[in-house]
Design a protein that fits this description.
It contains 13 helices and 17 strands. The protein has about 500 residues and is an alpha/beta fold. Bound molecules: flavin-adenine dinucleotide.
Length: about 500
Amino acid sequence: MKKVVIIGSGIAGATVAYYLKGQAAVTIICKGNREDSNSMLAQGGIAAVMKGQQAEKGQEPDSEAEHVADTLSAGVFHNQPKAVEKMVHEGPQVIQDLIDQGMSFDRTAEGQLDLGLEGAHSHKRILHAGGDQTGRQLTSFIHDQLTSVKWLTHTFALDFVIEDGRVVGLDYLDENHQKQTIFADYFVLASGGIGHLFQDTSNHATITGDGLAMALRAGCELSDMAFLQFHPSLLDGGKKVQPILISEAVRGAGARLVDEHDCPIMVGRSNQLDLAPRDVVSRIVNEQIQAGHKIYLDISDVVHFSQQFPAIASYLQQNNLDFATSQRIPIKPGMHFLMGGVKTDFSGRTGLNRLYAVGEVAFTGVHGANRLASNSLLEGLSFAKSVAEDILAYRASASQNHQKLKVRQNSVSMILPSRADLVKRTSETLGIIRRPASIRQFLAWLSTFNYQHLDPTCTDREQIETANLCLVAETIAKAALARPESLGAHYLLPEEEEPHESTSTGKN
Ligand SMILES: Cc1cc2nc3c(=O)[nH]c(=O)nc-3n(C[C@H](O)[C@H](O)[C@H](O)COP(=O)(O)OP(=O)(O)OC[C@H]3O[C@@H](n4cnc5c(N)ncnc54)[C@H](O)[C@@H]3O)c2cc1C
């Protein structure tokens, strides 16, 4: 039986395992518990044009062509159209497979899928489960199907072991912080994005760009790293409250963005008003906050808010944040999603033999310069199935015994900034608005450290994460400078509009 090691327990990694079930010996490695992922946090749902779904009264029926068109338009046509068509066409079949196995999505009284609306979608096409708990219910359902998988939880993937241009092993820290190596025939990188490179983020604490740094060190090509999605509406509940996401589905259900005087901030700014693409809305929210305003979601037009969004409502209540009386939720933008990633083909193959990448860590070209809401879970599902199929079909030479392999780098001493300083500077430089001179200064500052290779003797997870984040930050900064024109979520102020910089370049 083929041996497959999957790094990541989110929707992408779990779905690869689901389709390999019984046909390969699968190990899933994850940094925390199996529930610790962005996938478990997904609220709004999953965009799909499901067969047999009837159109609402007075509405035209939805179509794959329109889902493709909305995805391309939100992505400012920077997407790879063939990849978008593949996701939109194949994704619904994966969802149907899961429904056939017993996954349940929310339905109307008539038994139809209860489809939601989100920004930049021309139709209601968002499937959801448990109201705003789609990610948790979907990912847990898939986990529950994985009865024959070996789980290595609290296990930190470090670096690939490469022999003759092919990945044969993975170095990792086990749950006791001891360094180990696992060997296999195929490796699947499904380690998610980069949220914690930024101060304000919707992402789970385990999401620190490790997989991207591992891929870079292994020599893989990364693409479109300038394109980061900042979500317009993270909860702004003060310093003591974790800024969870307030889903775009809340705006889809009728909420409006207003300032402290109840003035709607999207009027006159976009034809799509509060449901404009995320990059547009985030820039406007950011601009208003920079101008000294407080921004809120006015939920007075959302029918039965607590029933539609039970997890959000309960979080607000737990943190004593009133929304029922004021009908307002304070928000701010934050880092949400990485459009770029490790370059793959349609089967998830990277440039490195036997290494696949899937989900948010991968670059398939579907999201273009700005991801359409609720397309990420769909990408994870559809491309994960292709990865599993490719692994099962792969005709390879018999697996060799690599247990005695002793190829290791020489010891390197890492010189790292503090995490707080890195994250602060990254947030100032590579956020919603970027300035070329600041990016150059940021790169000069980064160049005073040494983080390109991990010190093989280091077993401190915090330090390894910081080294990984530095490498990813450098890659994003270079990608941003290499793209002098603004496009979608990459928004660059022209040189002449740049204010005088005061940031020092020294280490501290
Ligand atoms: C709050 C929130 C709401 C969202 N809502 C939606 C939505 O409604 N619809 C939608 O389509 N998308 C949504 N998204 C985006 C979507 O959830 C993610 O893009 C998607 O779930 C990513 O799946 P993934 O499997 O690629 O990665 P993840 O689900 O992030 O999983 C990554 C896994 O890799 C593990 N890992 C990372 N580094 C290491 C390491 N070094 N060693 C071992 N393991 C490691 C992590 O612990 C985790 O298990 C949302 C995202 C967030 C944060």
